[in-house]
Specification:
Elements (H helix, E strand, L loop, with lengths): L1 H16 L12 E3 L5 E3 L8 E7 L3 H14 L4 E7 L8 H11 L4 E3 L3 H7 L7 E5 L5 E6 L4 H15 L5
Parallel strand pairs: 3-4, 4-5
Antiparallel strand pairs: 1-2, 3-6, 6-7
């Protein structure tokens, strides 16, 4: 009985954290960065895309993810989605300025709808997803950067792009 309850708890936690599971099709989105440049998942692509979901409190950790993935493969296509749903409208210009000052390359999810649709309502952890053509999620990692999580995501990117180690 205890094992059954533990299993149910694990299923509830993972479904609360990752809205779109492995093999699932994630909804398309178009968001703008701090300079107004748009990014869209509807753009046709043949290479995998790494999507990092974060919030304003996890910015440094999401940058560590991005930097580590790019250090392994400089040509990895990465988009960071910054959930700003908890920023009041009257403070958005201040938030935009601070994001620009940090040099962030994130696209801004002001109402949090994209983030919730992809990774669920739990904003307490970073969610990293490898997405193939057609927005099919191939792999995901939840939480802080670790060698194991990095290997999982990088390995999936390599296998989908046909890359080989040199």
């Amino acid at each position: 009985m205890a094992r059954l309850l533990a299993l149910i708890a694990c299923i509830m936690v993972s479904s609360a954290v990752a809205q779109v599971g492995i093999g699932g099709n994630a909804p398309h989105f178009t968001l703008s960065d701090v300079n107004g440049a748009e990014f869209s998942t509807e753009t046709s692509r043949t290479e995998p895309l790494v999507v990092i979901f974060t919030n304003k409190d996890l910015g440094d950790e999401s940058m560590a993810w991005r930097d580590s993935l790019l250090a392994r493969r400089a040509d990895t296509k990465i988009v960071t989605v910054l959930d700003l749903d908890d920023v009041p409208r009257m403070l958005r210009s201040v938030a935009r300025r601070r994001i620009a000052e940090k040099g962030s390359v994130a696209v801004l999810d002001w109402d949090g709808k994209v983030s919730k649709a992809w990774r669920g309502a739990d904003r307490s952890q970073i969610v990293v997803m490898v997405v193939g053509p057609g927005n099919t999620v191939a792999r995901s990692a939840i939480g802080n950067l670790s060698p194991e999580n990095l290997d999982v995501i990088d390995g999936q990117v390599r296998s989908m792009s046909g890359a080989t180690d040199q």
